Structure formats: C-alpha cells, structure tokens
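Below: protein 1.
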Amino acid sequence: MVRVVFTPNLRRHLEAPEAAVSGDTVRAALEAVFADNPRLRDYVLDDQGAVRKHVTVYVDGERLADRTALALAVAADAEIYVMQALSGG
C-alpha cells in the first residue's frame, strides 16, 4: 500500500490523517485519499486538478516535478508526503 502523509502544518487547517491506499500513480493514490476526505482535495488540488501553489508533494523523498498530471508511477511501498509550502521572511 502507498503511504500518504500530510505534514503537521497542513493538518492544523483540516483533518488529514496518514493513509495507506492503493494506487499506481501519484494521482491515483491521492484520489483514493480524497475519496474518504473530499474537503482535503480542495485544499491540495485546484479546480483544474493540479497541485495548488501553496502545496508541495514529495514521493520517496523527491519533490514531484509534474504538478498537473500527477502521472508519476509509484511502487506499492511508496511514500507520498504532502505539505503546505511555507514562505515569508
């Protein structure tokens, strides 16, 4: 199962528990999480289905470059981390 983790700073804004889901791409894994938590989808993805600018996704420690299609293949034991991008000074 793919492990999907939402960082604590994101969980401050809405319920986003860690999940173990099936999915062979980043999009499939995230959609499996969103099926149980539709409100989370609107926070992570924009109305076009792309990762929002204030959110960053890492797969097995590597930053996800494809923020639109989310078509990167993932292994069954992959770890996906979704975090709110922080900025400021």
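Below: protein 2.
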Amino acid sequence: MIELVRESWSPEETHAIGAALGRLLRAGDVVLLEGDLGAGKTALTRGVAAGMGIGPGAVSSPTFVIVHEYAAGRGGVGLVHVDAYRLGVEDAATLGLDAVPGDTAMVVEWPERMPHGVVDEAAAARVRLEVTGEQSRRLRLMLPEAWRQRADWAGGLAPAP
C-alpha cells in the first residue's frame, strides 16, 4: 500500500484532493472513506466525481437513500456513492452492492458499518479524514501499490520527488 498524508485548509482544497483521486480511478476501484460526521467525506466525493469528469453539482450525501449512482464520466466510468451510516446487515443484501456494474468505481462513506465481504477491503483504497480545525482537515490515503503505474499518478497525489 502507498501511504500519503495531505493537509487541506478549506473545502475547496478537500475538493481538489478528491479531484486528483478521481483522476486515478478506474472501473472496479473502491474507495473507503472514514471520518467523523462533518469531516468532509461528501465534499471529497464531489471532488472525486469532478476528477472523473462527472458534474460534482450532482453529488449529494446519500445518507437517507444510501446509494446514488452517477452517469459515466471520462473513459466511460460511472460512480456509485454509498453512505453506509444507516445501513443494516439486512439492507446490504437488498441493495445489490455485490452486483455493482463493472464499468463503475465506488466510493463508500462509513465502510465500517457495512457487512464484511460486500466489498474487497484488501484491494480498496482507504481515506481517513481527520478534523484539525474549523475548516482544516488531514487526509490519510492508503492506496493500492498498483496505482503508481497509472497515467495520472503524478496528477496531484504523488509525493514530490
């Protein structure tokens, strides 16, 4: 795993970090977002959508509907956005999360509330958002090693040489 730490001093910077992450995503990728309420998980997801070529204005927190699916952006890859905060074990089976289309990437907020086995956590990227101030956040990214080989690796997340 590749471990990166990024500091964000505003929602706009969190969005930009998300956009850099979104440019890296490919079909089948899963990103697990961890953090307290209000840490910026949905703001980061808006950035991910923008980086994927999906209108970030369409992205909203799926807390009450649990899953939002967004049409394909660049490269024909869509985005499935899951908020597992209100998810129960019985809900996971009925949502069809194990049958997400192969041409999508998935971002999961509150992954610790999902039953084990719904997503392959070992192959997933993980982002932990920590509140460090009123507007500031520390983002700890754990990305699969194979992502270093992707064309957009140097597009904002890679450490400076």
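Residues 11-24 form the longest helix (14 residues).
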